[in-house]
Amino acid sequence: MSNITLKAAGFIVAYYVLSAIGFATLHAFGITYIDDRIIWAALPMMLILAALAYYAQSNRTEMFNLRQLRFTWDHTPLFLVPFLTVATVIAALIESIVHGSFSILLIAAVLLALLIGFAEEAMFRRFILELPGENPSIAQSVGIFFLSVITFAGVHMMNVFSDMSLYEAFQQSLYTINFGVISALLYMVTKNFLALVFWHMATDFGLFTSQLGIFQSPALIGQVIDIVMWVSTGLSVVYGGLRLYRRFRLNPAPAA
User: Are 57 and 122 in contact (CB under 8 A)?
Assistant: First the structure.
């Protein structure tokens, strides 16, 4: 087994174990997955997981390259996602103040969504998909793609330690496959880590606000984000296809 494989397995297993311990600890204090209190109680756990995911990275400075917030980074609308996500948060805060429903849990929801977005995109997208290094073979690309999707779905099985039934956790894991496929594809083509972090954040923030009350802004702006993501996915499929075509054209398979 190569050192790269051992490194990947070690960090992924560590992420799973720490997730299980975190949820089990919360459950021991009577805080389950569907409890509103988990929005603030899970912050220490996610901070630890975010630190682990950050430590796993080989090139940390490039993660926060602000050029990712420009159209010229990948020539897709992905650069808009961080701005739209920030707008969602601000709109929800204003909405809560206007309606008199502001709660400190809303601030905790912002922080938790950001930590989840960073930790999971850093570990299951950036870390895994960068394992082969530059110019991976087709086989390596396919392998890490499926590893990214499967391990991301699998980490949601750790929710069984938070009083979620095995069936419910399995259903949630299946539900995340679509998200994992799109995120993995987008990262492999665009390398826009920040956009994926904020997309993940917007998704989870929308779920948290639906738990806390009726908020219109996350749903409305979320529709714009969805359009941006679908357009970006379509363009990424085209760009990825063109890269494969050029690669095979420049390096044709040897004749039998």
Answer: yes
